[in-house]
Protein 1
Amino acid sequence: MDKITISFTLNGKPYTVATRPDIRMLDVLRDDLNLTGTKEGCGIGECGACTVLVNGEAMHSCMVISGQMDGKDILTVEGLSETEIGKTLQRCFLEEGAVQCGYCTPGMLMSAYALLRKNPTPTRDEVRLALSGNLCRCTGYIPIINAVQKVNEKLNASR
């Protein structure tokens, strides 16, 4: 199969990649660009471990083919610490014990970040809904929800 050339912005930097059109975004990120923070869990869009932001929207990268990346603005967990909300969110995850095995953490962080960009003061139900596409087998979700709700409090305290 012939390769296609795609150009996109990734974590604030422009990229151009030659890849096959049937390759998933997840594989481009991990294999071609060596960004291994995005994890493959199920490979069918059910677990959320591969969540990234595409034009500000949380998406499962295992369900996006490479051609759909062209012209898009993509944010992965590696770029999260470049943002104030992202740094604070990561710190709150640590403080609240929302990280155990860590496999789901990148996807949880990305889904939470997408929510917090749109709604800085989400209710517990809004956090649950935003994270509903992400599975965690270790934490029981309560520390994750607490961490997400703590972000705005931390951000306001630092201003």
Protein 2
Amino acid sequence: MKTPYFLISRKEFDNNVALLNKAINRHWKNTIVGYSVKSNGMPWVLKYMKEQGFYAEVVSDDEYSLAKACGYPINRIIYNGIAKEEASFKEAIIGGAIVNVDSWREVRWIKELPEDVDKKIGLRVNFDLEKMCPGQTAGGKEGSRFGLSYENSDLEKVVIELSALPNCRIVGLHLHNSIPTRSLDAYCAISKKACEIARVLDLHLDYVDIGGGYFGGLENRPNYLNYFAIIADTLSEQFDKEKTTLIVEPGQSILATAISYVTSVVDVKDTIYNRFVITDGGRTQIDPMFRKTSHFYEICADEYENRTIFPKQVISGFTCVEGDRLFTLIDQPELQEGDKIIYHKIGAYTYTSASQFIKFLPSIYVEDENGIREVCKKWVAQDFISKQINY
């Protein structure tokens, strides 16, 4: 197989899903899992998640269309985010999707729907999680830009306006927050806020959507059982497990360990400062934001342990960006042209975010009990040209 390419492990996916289901069955059986499409939109992945009985959690009209194209009926889609379009938003409500309203323009769209349409609405809540968990949120002291503010009463105003509409009922709250620490304390705080809002606004809900962002597949980090235990214990103070559905939206925690990126060494060059090992892989395909400081990697090379030890080797990518340097080997055996470097646990936010900069998207393979098969071919020039008008 020509490198670079992404390699999906079906076994690892199955293991991660089994762990998730174990936590669900132990702590809150009445749970809907919404797979976060933004985490990785590979069609094979979406169809796999559908086979597990998961919903598709989408945050734009493009993702909404992709989910439908991959076989998700509208009533198995969770529609979140600030990038909804009016037509798909209205179609989703009419079709029975779980729709969480994020803004006043969406409230306007709901008011434009025919009176006889059954409108079951969820609300994305903007609240001050940073105050509850200092230093743990992505928005920090500037706050989040998502949802309807609880503290300034916008959330309450929307509840009042929508509740007055014919055939319109507030059925859920969506409280997802970006939590870089992914701490258990943060999920406890989110759950407490859900209880408070339902009590203060006198909401009788069909579901509470906690969102995603969980750790997965890393030692010495919380796992699904830890998260679900604290979420369930806290929500139980206000909600009945038999009557209220818990919605979770994992992406990274299912994906991360299940996908690898396989690359080859194509050149080795020395300068007065460094030895650069050039590979056909690059940061633009597994670290598109250039934020990672380390990688889980494996070197596959013949007689590797018997080679000459070299003091410093800078492993670099294929782009013309100087920052396309992936990691550095110190006092390790020399790498040579043709050696393989495999990056593990890169499943989330890589393929979806990977750019077409300099190289097109690579092939995708799946490994299962039947061997390895290609599920998506590498992009070529004609794929790019076919979208151009009057070329």
Protein 3
Amino acid sequence: MDNSEQQQKKDEQFMRRALDEAMAAREAGEIPVGAVIVAADRIIARAHNLTETLGDVTAHAEMQAITSAANQLGGKYLTDCTLYVTVEPCIMCAGAIGWSQIRRVVFGAADEKRGFMRFAPKALHPKCTVTQGVLEEDCRTLMTDFFRSRR
């Protein structure tokens, strides 16, 4: 197995953990977005949306995970970390990802309405790389099923 196949396998493994978080969000009545932050092939933070629970519009999965990872590492910069998130981050989260200096972002489903790639593609740190479409169908289905059930 070459490096790219190994990386793809790791990406899918960690995205499954982010999907677990998204399902926990759904069960709590939150929009089902989940995130994990990985350092040295180990999950150091996991989170899901808490905007309804906390009554806080900034309590997105990515924001919660960044705060948790910074606390875990004892510093605000996450330069050796990868963020896995089930849905493309919004502009607010992209700004926080940029300020935290996360080096890699991996997301499942694109967000055509609010995703940073359309509205703020340069918000991330200049050294950050983005991988999109990991377990995309699973991530998208979770969101579409959630919103369909609410209508």
Protein 4
Amino acid sequence: MKRMKAMIAYDGSGFAGYQIQPDSRTVQIELLKVLKRIHKGRDVQVVASGRTDAKVHATGQVIHFDTEFDIPSEGWLKALNVLLPEDIRVNHIEEAQPGFHARYHTSGKTYRYKWDRSPIISPFTRNYMVHLKQRPDVAAMREAAKAILGTHDFSCFCAANTGVVDKVRTVRRLDFEEHGEELHMIIEGSGFLYNMVRIIAGTLMEVGTGKLQPEAVAEIIRSADRGAAGKTAAPHGLYLENVEYEG
């Protein structure tokens, strides 16, 4: 039995998220259907680095599955991409090291959030960036972001309905990039709480639009109060970009 590790990308627009849900189209369901077909009707478990919500995209999601088939990597790549729907692609696949686990062995993740500052949003990007009604003060957002760097209890940036008890995480990088009318937030950390990246994006955008002062972010973190932070940013601007592993 071999364990295969794959990096996949998907357009989240047509999915109710990554994880299996009743009566909904999800990325995991599409992967399971294809692997079952390849394995002649046998169910094959697929494990991902983590789940993404409805309409959230991925350019660097990582999965693993076990197989008894001795197929070279290029064969797997071709077979999977022929059978998968066009809104999911396998960009790389290889045999994993013994004991590799796509979820439990992660050491960090990078997300990217995209806004469109153009006066009129293009119909071709409306599902992939969040349109802004006013141009934000990016310098103020950068100043506020400094308070988020480091290791903190991030209860204020976690959805209230989570069951996670330990909310201490480490944010190693938080930058902004400007590409023409596009504004990107790139955040890298040891791990993220439920909706954490989207709440950070929403809070920093409130700084950018003058609803919050940059120095307020440090106090919001100290408060550990979700109600003190900004609104959760829309899901379709978010991309899971990279997953890091131990070793």
